Amino acid sequence: MNLLARQNVPGMAARVFVDKGGTSQAETCLAYCPPGEEKASDARAEFGDLVLYIDALSAPYLQDMKIDVDRHGSGQMLAIKAPNSKKPARPPETFELPDTCVGLHVPHGTPVSLPAGATVSITQALGGSFTINYNGNLYRLAPDVARGIGLFSDVPVFETPADGQISKAQCEDALRQVYDPEIPVNVLSLGLIYGLDIDQESGKVCVTMTLTSPTCGMGDVIAADVRDNVSQVPLVKECQVEIVFDPPWSYDNLDDDARLELGLI
Questions:
Q1: Which residue among 71, 104, 183, 236 is least packed, with the fewest CB closer than 10 Å?
Q2: Cβ distance 16 to 58 under 8 Å?
Q3: Angle of CA points 162, 20, 42, to nearest 5°
Q4: Distance CA 265, CA 81 (A)
């Protein structure tokens, strides 16, 4: 294609990726890709004379994409349309880490540096965080870490209630976005939440919760997720989380959704 040939680089290709895929801020990007700069996890596609590399993390958002050449006067510009870029999509099951990042070793909670280029598989993608498998070990990627390597999830954004009061329902919805890294069930359905107290005057929310086991190494992480998620609810100025073990958690705490998810009914 003339557009690539003008770069005077033999074998010049193009690479397409989606920034902030699955969100309302998603942008589909097309960049020149000299030989050797493609990633091992990229998918290669050919459109006539055009060689295109597709970013593995972006592939779910590039379904039904169309590529064309826009002509402006004597110039040409590659144009790509990705109608699904802003729609929530399941992330790829296996991909290559684009950058070094820190994951928390499950279930101990120990921070571990995961190298760029490592091939990992996603075992859980819920509530904005991701659990990945690398060399047979599980690691949790916090929402900010996940976003840093291009992983985004469909976490709801709350609207401010018209009555100017903190909504208990929104707080509960925020709790439904917090998951145990090993169990695909949210903390509310697991029965980990013992109390949710809202002080409308001060804007403070107090959450009393427990863990499935007193020895759970991820307890502080889960509690931090609870605090961070509830703090995103409109009008909440502070969220305090207290972990207790009396009464101890048991399977009787599970709601019907959790029992169904875990195959107990």
A1: 71
A2: yes
A3: 160
A4: 45
Residue 2 has pLDDT above 60, yes or no: no
CA dihedral 60, 61, 64, 70 (to 10 degrees): -140
On whether the CB atoms of residues 236 and 196 are closer than 8 A, the answer is: no
Q: What is the pLDDT of residue 195?
A: 97
Whether the upstream peptide bond of residue 247 has omega within 30° of 0, thus cis, is: yes
Buried (b) or exposed (e) across 177-197, using 16+ Cβ within 10 A? bbbbbbbebbbbbbbbbbebe
**pLDDT tier, 100 (very low <50, low <70, confident <90, very high otherwise):** very high
Question: H or E segment at 230?
Answer: helix 219-231
Phi–psi pair at 10, nearest 5 degrees? -55, 135
**Amino acid (1-letter code) at residue 210:** T
Q: What residues have CB less than 8 Å from 47, skipping those under 6 apart?
A: 67
Token pair of 162, please? 């018209």
Structure tokens at 185: 């069930």
Neighbours of 140 (CB within 10 A): 25
Cα–chain-centroid distance for residue 26?
A: 14
Half-sphere exposure of residue 124, counting CA atoms within 13 Å on the CB side?
21
Q: What is the pTM of this model?
A: 0.60
For residue range 75-98, what is the model confidence (pLDDT) as tens digits?
A: 556 677 888 887 766 667 888 898
Q: Which residue has the tokens 């609870």?
A: 226
**Using an 8 Å Cβ cutoff, are 191 and 257 in contact?**
no
Neighbouring CB atoms inside 10 A of 15's CB total 20
For residue 91 the two structure tokens come to: 């992330």
Total count of residues recorded for the chain: 265
